[in-house]
Amino acid sequence: MGWNRGRRHFVVGSLAAAGWFAGCATHRSSGEAGLREPANAASVMNAAPAGATSPALGQPGPHGITVLDHDWIDRDRDRPVPVRLYTPQANAATLPLIVFSHGLGGSRYGYSHLGRFWASHGFVSIHLQHAGSDRGVWGSRGLAMLGALRSAANVDNAVARVLDVRFALDTLLGQHEWNERIDRRRIGIAGHSFGANTAILASGARFRDGDAVRSFGDPRIGAAVLMSPPSLPADQDPYFVYSAVGLPTLHLTGTRDETMIPGLTTMADQRRVPFDSMAALPRYLGVFDAGRHSMFADWSRDETSARIKASARDLTLAFWRSVFDSDREATTRLADAGASGSPHAASLAFWESRVPLLPTKAAG
User: What is the mean predicted confidence (pLDDT) over 293-319?
Assistant: First the structure.
């Protein structure tokens, strides 16, 4: 399936399904043709016109920021959970919190442009480092490195990561300073690649493990940003896995967002499978034109990737504000992100919104 660059407005019909978890083989459910969106949902799909230009996006907010590193230990699991905390120098009585989970081979130091940006706009952002699937996997070379990557992307590490999220929330909210300052009604999670998988699990996804069904959702989490989620193993049904997620989501990927590691391959069009398989509303899907798998990292390979990062910062901020603050301007910004004249038109190849239908007045 290629990305449709045409423009359509329609009430949602059948869903597609394909893969997730640690980036394994694609699976397509035999019953997918019968899966349908809730009747009270509407979908808008559109693409930016060619040649559109964009004003500056993703600029820092009004707050100074403080960056602190903590080397926490989960004693129950005898496991280190290093974190980097980005905090706004703001006078607000309470602050929203975003938990960020890095991709395979990453660390708490990565994706700092997001942490700094969110903090400058009044959000606390805590970036976790996940032992066993962090930058330690790059210690080998050649085939040994590929083996280390495949070994790290396993179910045990997937579960350990989501338990890291739970531990980090328990630890941060258990500290007197943050227990009083974090608004527990405004806690979100974001992640890239294997980190998106972590965010999905923490948001309530379930999976089959032999005869058992496992789920690690954290009820404190109220929204999720999923960047480049990997495909599922072939034995997992996407609708079963993702339909258990019951909170608002923003999905971001790119037309060239592929990982071609043997055993961990995910193609660009598979990245939208979680979006198509979920039912909770609202949810949004943005596909960046020429966006590669590294597009959300701190470094920029060219002007295109720099523009994508700026657009991603702006869209994620609009999403957090729309969900947590019922900010009408932010909600409108999301609704119009793919429309002609949008500041995101230069970077988005495709945008889709699935939102609740507004009630209509009865005739007479």
Answer: 93
Q: What residue numbers bound the domain in which 192 lies?
A: 8-356
- Reading the block at residue 256, the tokens are 């060239």
Tokens of 9: 């407005």
CA distance linking residue 1 with residue 276, whole number of Å? 13
Question: How many folded domains does the chain comprise?
Answer: 1
pLDDT, averaged across the chain: 84
Q: H or E segment at 239?
A: helix 238-242
- Angle 175-176-177 from CA coordinates, rounded to 5°: 95
H helix and E strand count, the chain: 9, 13
Decide if pLDDT at 309 tops 80: yes
Q: Tell the burial category of 324 from Cβ atoms under 10 Å away from its Cβ (0-12, 13-18, 19+).
A: buried
Residue 256 resides in a domain: yes
In a domain, 361, yes or no: no
Percent of the chain with pLDDT over 90: 68
Measured CA angle at 334 (ends 330, 338), to 5 deg: 145
The two three-digit tokens of residue 241, written as one number: 């896995």
Amino acid at residue number 168: A
Q: Are 125 and 118 in contact (CB under 8 A)?
A: yes
Strand partners, 287: 253, 350
Is 364 within the bounds of a domain? no
Q: What is the DSSP letter of 117?
A: H
Cα(357)–Cα(178) distance, integer angstroms: 37
Q: Which residue is associated with the tokens 């706004």?
A: 88
Q: Categorise residue 48: left if φ over 0, alpha if ψ from -120 to 50, beta otherwise.
A: beta
Angstrom distances, CA of residue 146 to CA of 14, 153, 171, 295: 37, 11, 34, 21
CB 288 within 8 A of CB 338: no
> Would the pLDDT of 262 be above 80?
no
Burial class from Cβ neighbours inside 10 Å (0-12, 13-18, 19+) for residue 221 reads buried
CATH code, domain carrying 114: 3.40.50.1820
* pLDDT at 282 (0 to 100): 97
